[in-house]
């Protein structure tokens, strides 16, 4: 089914205020041959399928498959039946919440949207962060989970809005591999192998579509993760360095200084001072 012909911004300003509240994030393994429903969907629910297969049937509407490496969106008001692969466990991440400020125009736009999409690195990263937030209990009384869930929904929408400008599949495969292995010692060859291309071809793709190289992209993501962990956790700097994929604290400190102008400790202290002064 073709995507919507108009952008969200062309509907009305209020439609851009859609958010999800009271969100729940949960990794689940569905048993082979199991079924959910028929049930009334009362929330906006996003399902990322990591392995296996699920079949969604909407009463009076469409039926579609969600394969491993895809994501789907389930909308409120639908009576749905979900069946899972009989050949093995279906591993998935479910993120659901109550829609807040869902206008009729936005509801109609979402109804016209194709409900499935291949997982991009960004979709996978946002879902992973939502899961990690719940697991580490850094939820800010649920506000952070709601924010990440809302960001995931809008990223899903944005990727459809900009479908012609979507990155080539090989780049998305490379980015997904990078995001899933930030803590590990990986090489350009490893990334290229995950993307099913030669290292030279992957470099050309990244330069053309991302404006950098795969290796630089990897280190940029590690630096970003390191800065996030420094400012949002109390882990020792040496632990943050390892969690961000750096072999030594010295290398980590040098890259953080290059990126922010501050040492890791100074960056953390500056961030925490700002946070306390704004309370």
Structural class: alpha+beta
* CATH domain topology of the largest domain: Jelly Rolls
Report the strand count.
9
What is the helical fraction, as a range of percent?
40-55%
**What's the SSE pattern?**
EEEEEEEEHEHHHHHHHHH
Number of helices: 10
For CATH, the homologous superfamily of the largest domain is named as Regulatory protein AraC
Query: Regions with pLDDT < 50 over 5+ consecutive residues?
Result: 1-5, 274-279
Instruction: For the largest sheet, list the strands in their spatial order.
Output: 1-8-3-6-9
Let me know the average pLDDT. Answer: 85
Ends apart, CA distance between termini: 48 Å
Shape label: globular
Report the C-alpha radius of gyration, rounded. 20 Å
Organism: Agromyces albus
Keywords: Activator, DNA-binding, Transcription, Transcription regulation
Pfam families: AraC_binding, HTH_18
Domain HTH araC/xylS-type: 172-270
Walk me through the structure.
This protein has 279 residues and is an alpha+beta fold. The protein folds into 2 domains: 8-165, Jelly Rolls (Sandwich); 169-277, Arc Repressor Mutant, subunit A, CATH 1.10.10.60. 45% of the residues lie in helices and 22% in strands. It is built from 10 helices and 9 strands. The strands form 2 sheets. A 5-stranded antiparallel β-sheet has the order 1-8-3-6-9, covered by helices on one side. It is globular. Residues 172-270 form the HTH araC/xylS-type domain. It comes from Agromyces albus.
